[in-house]
Structure formats: structure tokens, C-alpha cells
């Protein structure tokens, strides 16, 4: 669908850009944007662990050991859902300080 020569996707991109620019401008005015120390960046590496843990299904695509009747393949992935949530919480907490 064209609106004044722009597609809906173009209009959305422009709108998102303008919204982000507006938000960043007001965050700078209120002093909410702070330079992140390099020490905090290391905490971001924790977010790589779920990716690495699930990136290679050849390592966990098996039935044993089963946990409460669930094959390893299923409960391993579900354990990473819980672990990833915990890791996100830790990283958020460290960045919020």
C-alpha cells in the first residue's frame, strides 16, 4: 500500500527513527544516559551462554537421561529457558546499578 509515495514499511521505519531520536534527546536532557563503564560490558557475555548451550543440538539430541519421564532433549531446552531468564535478571540488575 502506497501513501504519498511511501510504503507502509517506510512510514513505520521513519516513525520508529523519529521516536527513538525523541526519546534519546529527552533522556540526555534528564541525565538518564550515562557512559557505561567497561566493567559492565563483561556482564553482557553471560547472555552468550544460552546461545552456546542451545546452538549445537547434536550434543543434546538424545533421550537419556530422562527427568520425570521427559527425554533429555526436552528438559535440557526447558532448563535453558529458566537459566536464560535468570541470566537476563542478573545482567539487568548489574546494569541498573
UniProtKB/TrEMBL annotation:
InterPro entries in the record: DUF3311
One matching Pfam family: DUF3311
Protein's organism: Edaphobacter paludis
Protein name listed in UniProt: DUF3311 domain-containing protein
Annotated keywords: Membrane, Transmembrane, Transmembrane helix
Superkingdom as given in the UniProt entry: Bacteria
Residue spans crossing the bilayer: 44-61, 73-93
Amino acid at each position: 500500500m502506497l501513501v504519498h509515495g511511501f510504503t507502509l514499511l517506510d512510514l513505520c521505519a521513519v516513525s520508529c527513527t523519529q521516536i527513538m531520536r525523541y526519546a534519546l534527546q529527552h533522556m540526555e536532557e534528564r541525565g538518564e544516559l550515562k557512559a557505561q563503564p567497561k566493567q559492565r560490558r563483561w556482564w553482557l557475555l553471560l547472555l552468550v551462554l544460552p546461545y552456546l548451550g542451545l546452538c549445537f543440538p547434536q550434543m543434546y539430541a538424545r533421550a537419556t537421561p530422562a527427568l520425570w519421564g521427559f527425554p533429555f532433549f526436552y528438559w535440557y531446552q526447558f532448563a535453558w529457558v529458566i537459566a536464560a531468564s535468570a541470566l537476563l535478571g542478573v545482567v539487568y540488575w548489574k546494569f541498573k546499578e
